[in-house]
Every structure is written in C-alpha cells, then in structure tokens.
Amino acid sequence: MAKDLPGRMQWAASVAALLILGAASSAVCEAQMHVPTFQCANNGALRVTCVGNFLDGRSAAGIKARVLDQHDHVVYVGTVDSQGRITFRKPDAEFHIVFDAGQGNVLTILGSEMT
Fold first, then answer.
1. DSSP secondary structure letter of residue 93
2. Strand partners, 37
C-alpha cells in the first residue's frame, strides 16, 4: 500500500489542478459575459441614443456612461436606463463614449464610428 501512495498523490494533484483550471475557466467565461456591447446612432435633433446589453443577453441597465470631447474633457455623465438605453446631446466637435461595466469591462465608442 505504501507504493500506491505516490500514485494517489499524483492523482489527487491532477484532480485538484483540473478543478482549479475549471474554476478559472468559469471565471473567465463569466467575466467575458459581463462585457457590454452598445450600438449608438444619431437620432436627429443633435441627439445620440445608445442601446446596449451584455454578451449573455442581459440588459446593460445601470452601466455608467461618460461622453468626452476630443481633449478628454467630460461633457456628459449618465447611467443606462432600465431598457438598456441612454440618450444625450451630441457634442459639437469630435467625441467618444466610455461605458464602464465594472470589473475592468470598459467599452469605448468613437463618435465617428456611429451610424
């Protein structure tokens, strides 16, 4: 039985490693699902509307959004509403929108990339 102990220890170590890898993989998948996606468009009258969700289909409600001008000065700060939308006045010059979903999940959309 003493000869079997190293083999059992190797087996236990292998199982532990697989469990750790599985947990890490699960955490990575969960973090990826927390990545926001947004589509923004000019909706006339100098307004921009962005609609977003997470990769798993959940609404992006509650995400903080900041609109910054070409000099990175904040021109608007808001929160995505319960329907996953946010609307703001379009800045006069170049701008970009930063959506911060927390946990390092930040999405930036350039005003020039909008439809």
1. S
2. 53
